[in-house]
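I would like you to sit down with the record closing this message with an eye to the fold:
=====
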Amino acid sequence: MIMVDNNQKINIKKLKKQIENDWISFPKINSIDNDKGIIMLFLDNNNAFFILDLPKPIPWSDLEGPCATAYYWSKATKELKNHTGHYIVSYIGSDINYFILEQSIIITKIIISITELIKIKGIYWGSGTVVNSPEYLIKIGKECLEKDLLPVSLWIEYRIEKNKDDTHNILTTGMDTFGHREIEIQNTRKNPFDILFSLYHFTDYLLKNGPVVKDGDTIGVTKEDKNRVKFGPSLWNRDDVLIIEFI
């Protein structure tokens, strides 16, 4: 969801041009229409997307937690608490083979192009309960998608928790949307920010290849990494998760 002030409206002709200029690999847009606040994009791959203009804020009860834990964006609460409207970008096609990953990539591209057209307050990816600034969206989104990497930090929350014994937990939210177990690093004494780089790459690998990692496997960004994976209980009240034991 794209958070804005109510005076920020999308020009559909400019949006079509912006998308075509931004993304060489974007499916051809056959037509784009605007009917009563709903922008419809019909693509030549028989899929369609809509952009719904809602002149009211996202409930603060949905945003308060993600903003409070957004260690990567210190101004999240200040910037988002008083937004007055938002846009929802969603897929409405009937192609059952159009996977959630492909949908998410196209939705992200549309959101980035909108962000380059109008002034926005921030982005909320609801399935991952994650908020991001417009600057981060454009920088990370474009860098990743232009290099065939997935912008996982836009879709998935990587919550960092500090324990009383000075160890840390890192817990994802949003992997289940893509058909995967959530990931947890539990009670690690490593610097959590050093782990995040490896975790982003591991997440990218899983989303591209499916749930191929088995209980007891080892993973790593380099051949020297031997981080053991196991399936087990979550630190939160949810189903069993994929636990990575970083050495």
